[in-house]
UniProtKB/TrEMBL annotation:
Protein name, entry field: Endoribonuclease-L-PSP family protein
Species the sequence originates in: Rhizobium grahamii CCGE 502
Residue ranges of every copy of the Endoribonuclease L-PSP/chorismate mutase-like domain listed in the record: 7-145
Coiled coil: none
Gene3D superfamilies assigned: RutC-like
Family annotation (InterPro entries): Endoribo_LPSP/chorism_mut-like, RutC-like_sf
């Protein structure tokens, strides 16, 4: 991991967890050419998932924190895929954010800002990315948020 990225994580009080194992019939990441595809990550911390629906039983701040946790787990998967060297990330190409929400909740973009802000703060210029923020009726394990990522790597 590059020293600058490690310093940013430490400054933010973030210790990356071990990358989570897949929960079904898929792999956690795939490298194809110079692209790293990271499967959807849930807002898990210390074995507990942030659950529920925005607009019903999850408020905006909790949703944003859930998106941050997804981003932390994306970085953990990237570290595993890249042999521990997050400095190999040349660019986060795209984040796809899915928010479990009620039909009248329309602030999915603000929820996913939690992940975008964290990725940008940790990776700097390389963390600027395209993005989708989509409302969903339900997500696996009743997760409030799920985010996947595509990264260009060296």
């Amino acid at each position: 991991m590059s020293d600058q990225i490690a310093a940013r994580l430490k400054e933010m009080g973030i210790s990356l967890p071990e990358a989570a194992a897949p929960a079904a019939n898929y792999v956690s990441y795939v490298i194809s050419g110079n692209l790293l595809y990271i499967s959807g990550q849930l807002p898990a911390e210390n074995g507990k998932i942030t659950t529920g629906h925005l607009g019903k039983d999850v408020d905006l701040a909790t949703g944003q924190r859930a998106a941050e946790l997804c981003a932390v787990n994306i970085l953990a998967q990237a570290r595993a895929a890249l042999g521990g060297d997050l400095g190999r990330i040349k660019r986060v190409v795209k984040l796809n954010g899915f928010v479990a929400s009620t039909p009248d909740f329309v602030e999915q973009h603000l929820v996913i800002n939690g992940a975008s802000n964290l990725i940008g703060a940790v990776l700097g210029e390389a963390g600027k990315h395209a993005r989708a923020a989509v409302g969903m009726a339900a997500l696996p394990l009743n997760a409030a948020v799920e985010i996947d990522a595509i990264m260009e790597i060296a």
